[in-house]
Amino acid sequence: MATTLSNQSSDSLNGDENACASEGPAQPSQPAAEVDREAIKDAVRTILKAVGEDPDRAGLVETPRRVADMYAEMFSGLHKQPSRHLQVVFPETYDELVLVSDIRFTSMCEHHLLPFSGVAHVGYMPNGKVTGLSKLARVVEEVARRPQVQERMTQQIADLIEKELNTNGVVVVVEAEHSCMSIRGVKKPGSMTLTSALRGVFKTCQATRAEVMSLINRPSR
Ligand SMILES: Nc1nc2c(ncn2[C@@H]2O[C@H](COP(=O)(O)OP(=O)(O)OP(=O)(O)O)[C@@H](O)[C@H]2O)c(=O)[nH]1
Ligand SMILES: [Zn+2]
């Protein structure tokens, strides 16, 4: 894997604790009431005209509706509260690592409204309770389905789990390819961006951090 450590969070993969300061709290998302399909359809007609197309030709007549449906799907996370999934918990004394790796996602780069896709690895150290494994993937899915930057998406997933599960530690690693970098602009297909958010014991204990990173990067993946 060619890894471009672009904008890698400073609380990431090296052992220098002085380099582990947080970059500050994640930006809260701004929930809108709901996706306004009619407004999107009007906007798509405007764009089609602006690029020199005829929005009334047969092949394009349904395009504004399709794009409105697509945005409703891609931005559905704006209208959901992912924290609700983490309220499904089971009391357990297990207090070692829980790691769900390779959770596939597609999000939308908020700069270009082009998709970025990849995998998220989400782990935590339980503190008296565990949540359903699928709930971690549901959180990734809903946080991704918003206009995003990868760094904020990574932070938001970690913050939600830390807050809702009262864990001893959280680790989130996201690897993604940004189509705004691969199909346009600088045109570097295959370049991967890696971001990480570490909380609790994953931040303070170098050995624990090294162990989870070795599991995430294990050769059999
Ligand atoms: N940090 C960060 N940058 C992103 C993300 N997604 C896209 N970008 C970058 O956002 C930047 C926007 O830069 P601008 O100069 O404003 O826009 P642009 O002229 O389209 O830039 P180019 O992509 O370089 O052509 C680009 O460098 C993108 O690669 C992300 O998740 N995180
Ligand atoms: Zn972009």
From TrEMBL:
Gene Ontology CC terms, in alphabetical order: cytoplasm
Source species, domain of life: Bacteria
Origin organism lineage: Bacteria, Pseudomonadati, Planctomycetota, Planctomycetia, Pirellulales
Family that this chain belongs to: Belongs to the GTP cyclohydrolase I family.
Species this protein is from: Pseudobythopirellula maris
One protein family per Pfam: GTP_cyclohydroI
MF term (GO), any: GTP cyclohydrolase I activity
Amino-acid positions noted as binding Zn(2+) in the UniProt annotation, renumbered to this chain: C109, H112, C180
The name this protein goes by in its record: GTP cyclohydrolase 1
Biased composition (Polar residues): 1-15
